[in-house]
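Predict structure. Chain length: 282.
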Amino acid sequence: MLQREVASFEIRDLGGALGAEIIGLDLASPLDGPTRSAIRDAFLEHQILAIRDQDLDIEAQVAFSLQFGPLERHVISNRNAPHPLVHIVTNLDADGRPSGSLQSTTWHSDKSFRPEPSMATILHARQLPPAGGETCFADMYGAYDSLPAETRAEIDDLRVVHSYALGRARMGVSVSEAERRDAPDTIHPLARIHPDTGRRALFMGDHAHHIEGWQVETGRALIERLQAHATQECFVYRHEWRPGDVLMWDNRCLLHRVEQNFDAARHARVLHRTCLRGTAPA
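Prediction complete.
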């Protein structure tokens, strides 16, 4: 495991292709320039940062997030927090009791249906089950790099229609006209170039519906084959949450989902989410 000390905190490689943890940093206080630079560099290197032992209220999480860029608004159904740019990820019902229902159990990249999809998601653990409920990540750099050269050449110029409405429909969930207007379809490259690293990564997930200019069924079959390839165990990191974790990950080169492996009708799982706006994929 690699370890390095930056000022008063440590960045420790978690030992795989993805992920590092940061120890000894207080996110409730404003970060100085060198600290922000160190976090940004580690974020680009490891794609996932687990910043340990935090206790942020909603305003403090927003303040921390804004130090790395503007925040993305959430879809209408996610606007359930006192702050308009925070989404409460929760299995609790209106009476504060575990409902048995979990969302985000299938692979996706946050806000991929926006013209400028989320650059990063920041998720702060507030209540956790005694075990389980991990967040899983798939390495889309590694998945792209491992494809045969002829496949990479075939897909490099393809573009995908990302649709919030059609993605929800595939899961048996209908959306309102207001939701459709709030999140219209958009088109992005299937293999996007990361704006900071220059590396190519597959860009897909639940909202990636079909290939522009192809028959829908043919395009869906290609997307599903590539996603099955990208989510093999060799590309996956499972984050085992600790109380107080703040997890920050790069949506431009990762897919993620929650592991549905605990009794969601007995145990609470509550996390606060902010999303940093990205740029139009190229």
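Summary: The CA atoms of residues 138 and 231 lie 6 Å apart.
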